Amino acid sequence: MALHDAACGCAVLPLRAADAEGRPRAHSPAARTGGGSLKLVMKQFEFTTLKLFLAVADCGSLTTAADKCNIAIAALSKRISDLEAAAGTRFFERRARGMSLTPAGRALLQHAREIIHGVEQMQSDLLLYSRGIHGLLRIAATASAVAQFLPEEVRSFSDAHPGVAIDLSEGTSQKVVEAVLGERADLGIFLEPVSGHELVTFAYRRDRLCVVVPRGHPLAAQARVRFEETLSYDHIGTQTQSSLSQKLMAEGGVGYRVRIRVGSVDAACRMVHAGMGICIAPRLIVENYQGCFSIALVELHEPWAVRQMLVGARSKQGLSGAARAFLRRCIDAGEAELQRNVSGLAGSAFTAGAPEVSRTAKDLSHEAKHAGAPPSYDPALPIADPENA
């Protein structure tokens, strides 16, 4: 006789009881077949049960998971026990302090996440089709990328693919990487370096940092300054989790004095205008505020003042058509920017005259790399096609 399960509104076939250790008894179907018939196992691995399994795995506690999923503890416990009985193995170690995954549980966890993500993505895609929209592209990016470059790529992509909806979220470089790894974003755009990730990455664009000072400030008369020279003045900082804040604190040490922290470059420029101090920020963003505030921009003369942005994905093969198209557009934009930079170096060499004119494009690309590109990225080399690399 089938039992009605209130948690998912579906019929679940009852299984023979398991023993105290969670192993199926000898007379159960699972025990007789060494893991249960495929049909019986598949009946237990349905969508709601997998979601409940994920909740227990994430919470490490039946009680917490039951509260999170709005289901009775006894019902949740039975779901997990039935799942283990059908598979013929234990997915959790039951301890006084909670539940931890067994090796079999960790294997199921990976597959369950992929299944849940796939079903949820299918539902999302079908909903978009029902509304006349053909696909969804999820992008996570740093605020710096959004404020400087991404609008160009998003606009051109949207014009070419009007049926694709775009979901753009902002975060620090670390949060962007976590969003892609956690399958909350298809593509991520972030700054090097972010350690410990396993994303496939391609060079995107580079931004340049500058020093923002009030007009009439002693540093405003200089063409460029070293970071050490700025430590004589109070700084206006941004969120401490950002890669820029982390870099400034590492470079400045105890000499880096932050008078006030704000949440955006816009707010930082306003504080500089008000005389609260100076700040270091991406030049292209600050240039938007020069006409609004009484501020001046000074070149920051440091090797780390030029920052490489990357576009990353979990894998090239797993990308949707929309994601592949946008990735290609980002790579093309990075290559075009590199060519402009190389041409600029060549033009400077020509005007300088003498033997500098004889430098090759490869030499100039080498100089562009050492002028600010990270060691892992060689601008003299072509970037592989994301579909063929």
TrEMBL record:
Pfam families: HTH_1, LysR_substrate. One of its GO terms (cellular component) is cytosol. Residues 358-389 are annotated as: Disordered. GO terms for molecular function: DNA binding; DNA-binding transcription factor activity. InterPro entries: HTH-type_LysR_regulators, LysR_HTH_N, LysR_subst-bd, WH-like_DNA-bd_sf, WH_DNA-bd_sf. Residues 359-370 have a biased composition (Basic and acidic residues). It comes from the Bacteria. Keywords: DNA-binding, Transcription, Transcription regulation. Residues 45-102 form the HTH lysR-type domain. Belongs to the LysR transcriptional regulatory family. This is LysR family transcriptional regulator.
